[in-house]
Amino acid sequence: MDTMEKITALAKRRGYIFPSSEIYGGYQGFWDYGPLGVELKNNIKREWWKSMVYKREDVVGFDAAIIMNPTVWEKSGHLKAFTDPLVECKSCHRRFKVEDAGDKCPECEGEYTQPKTFNLMTEVLLGTTEPKEKSYLRGEITQGVFVNFENVVNSSRVKIPFGIAQIGKAFRNEITPGNFTFRSCEFEQT
Questions:
Q1: Inter-residue contact 70 to 142 (CB < 8 Å)
Q2: Which of 168, 174, 122 lies closest to 148, judged by CA?
Q3: Is the preceding omega at residue 115 within 30 degrees of 0, hence cis?
Q4: What is the domain partition of the chain in residue ranges?
């Protein structure tokens, strides 16, 4: 058992974090926080918020929606540039980032396909009728701040320079999720 597996096993035993949907085989790249984990996470967020928002006069808080108009992601360049090149093993069909792939598949020694561009934005379909409207779960939290900058300036008593603080979930359609919570598909950002 390597060090990361030992840390993961300890965190699970102590009630900090569990693989999501574990009773159904889990879902790689997703984690559920147990009783101690959620308390630790909330304490860290609370202390960060106190130090960044409450104890400063030049920073205001904000909480943007997780799903925004798809034009936000188009105009910010996320739909074209928020990508990684990937290869797929022709034998076992495992996928790898080109930078992590090596010469042969580490699982079966198979050969790879030609690299393809893989978008890290997580698509969602919205609407009650067909055709559904395509949007995205946010890949990072700052775009909500950027598109609401004028709203914040006009509705608060801040003067430039000032800061806008936010804590929230972000999502990445990772090619190879893993390495405990350090490469997950759903995570918290500040």
A1: no
A2: 168
A3: no
A4: 3-80+121-189, 83-119
Which of 60, 57, 67, 63 has its CA nearest to residue 155? 60
Tens-place pLDDT, residues 45-57 = 999 999 999 999 9
Secondary structure class of 79 (helix, strand, coil)? helix
Find the helix or strand (DSSP H, E) in which 58 lies. none
pTM equals 0.80
Q: How far apart are CA 133 and CA 149, in angstroms?
A: 26
Three-state secondary-structure class, residue 67: strand
Architecture of domain 3-80+121-189: 2-Layer Sandwich (3.30)
Residue 85's nearest CA partner among 94, 97, 77, 95 is 97
